[in-house]
Amino acid sequence: MITTQAFTTYFILYTFASLVLALGISFTGAAWIIYFFSLLPFYLICTLYCLSFYLNHRDRQLKFTASFWYLIPIFQVIFMATSPAECRLWHQGRACYSFMQSHLDNTQGDPAHWNFVEIVFPLSLLLYSLSLVAFLKKTQIQ
Question: pTM for the full model?
Answer without folding.
Answer: 0.84
